[in-house]
């Protein structure tokens, strides 16, 4: 059963309204989130996703609701990796806490667009070439093997392809200009370190999406369910990031376990 265009529109309106309310509350606070506030916002996003799951059950039936819930749990679980990478990225670029909020907001909006395109392409390929699902499966198995036997360690952003591209082709300022992604220095526009951090965040999210989206395709090929389960998991990442970032000093064995692998 195909999904009505009005359901698509209503979903996006709901997402953008929820993000706008969240942003307004953050600006009203005027300070970074505490552990308690981040935990509360994370819980709110989870509850909103489960309420949407209930709506799917009412309108599309229990099978589609189960597919959404399964895809949401898978995507949300895999998104934890994104959180730790975001922590490393912001620490590498020395991004101030308030500026991290703006970068994550725009990073989420970029993720909405990129994942929408990837899901559209994936659904089109699967509908025409069913064997693509087996390729997705092989890719996921290879990724798991690489993670199991590969060497652990923090990503080397300085020598990464995206950083080399930015250094060689994009003028970058040496310092931050508030929460701006670009600044006019002299007679030309330049990218600030916050702008570079945003680019790296979007690229890393794209890399993670290559793993997570095929995993959801193993559950369902319904484009609406694949897309909404991904987006509902992604929009809650910002609050989850601040929760994890505030608790990083409590993960006393994280670096030990990574180094001993």
Task: Describe, in plain words, how this protein is organized in 3D.
A hairpin with a 2-residue loop joins strand 1 and strand 2. Helix 3 (62-93) packs across helix 8 (223-235). The protein has a two-stranded antiparallel sheet with strand order 1-2. The protein starts with a helix and ends with a helix. It is built from ten helices and two strands. The chain has helices at 5-29, 35-60, 62-93, 97-128, 132-149, 161-169, 193-217, 223-235, 237-246, 254-259, and strands at residues 182-185, 188-191. With 261 residues, the chain is mainly alpha-helical. The model is unreliable at 255-261 (pLDDT under 50).
Short summary of the structure?
This protein has 261 residues and is mostly helical. It has helices at residues 5-29, 35-60, 62-93, 97-128, 132-149, 161-169, 193-217, 223-235, 237-246, 254-259; strands at 182-185, 188-191. Helix content is 75%, strand content 3%.
């Amino acid at each position: 059963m195909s999904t009505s265009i009005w359901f698509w529109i209503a979903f996006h309106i709901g997402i953008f309204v929820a993000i706008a309310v969240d942003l307004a509350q953050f600006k009203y606070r005027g300070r970074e989130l505490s552990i308690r506030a981040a935990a509360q916002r994370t819980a709110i996003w989870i509850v909103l996703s489960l309420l949407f799951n209930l709506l799917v059950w009412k309108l599309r039936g229990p099978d589609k609701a189960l597919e959404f819930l399964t895809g949401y749990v898978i995507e949300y679980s895999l998104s934890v990796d994104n959180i730790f990478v975001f922590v490393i990225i912001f620490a590498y670029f020395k991004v101030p806490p308030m500026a991290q909020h703006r970068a994550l907001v725009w990073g989420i909006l970029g993720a909405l667009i990129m994942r929408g395109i990837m899901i559209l392409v994936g659904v089109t390929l699967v509908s025409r070439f069913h064997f693509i699902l087996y390729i997705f499966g092989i890719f996921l198995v290879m990724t798991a093997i690489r993670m199991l036997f590969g060497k652990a360690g923090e990503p080397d952003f300085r020598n990464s392809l995206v950083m080399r591209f930015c250094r060689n082709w994009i003028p970058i300022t040496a310092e931050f200009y508030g929460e701006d992604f670009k600044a006019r220095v002299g007679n030309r526009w330049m990218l600030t370190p916050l702008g570079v951090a945003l680019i790296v965040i979007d690229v890393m999210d794209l890399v993670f999406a290559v793993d997570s989206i095929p995993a959801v395709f193993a559950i369902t090929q319904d484009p609406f369910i694949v897309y909404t389960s991904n987006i509902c998991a992604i929009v809650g990442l910002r609050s989850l990031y601040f929760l994890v970032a505030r608790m990083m000093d409590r993960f006393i064995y994280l670096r030990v376990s990574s180094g001993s692998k």
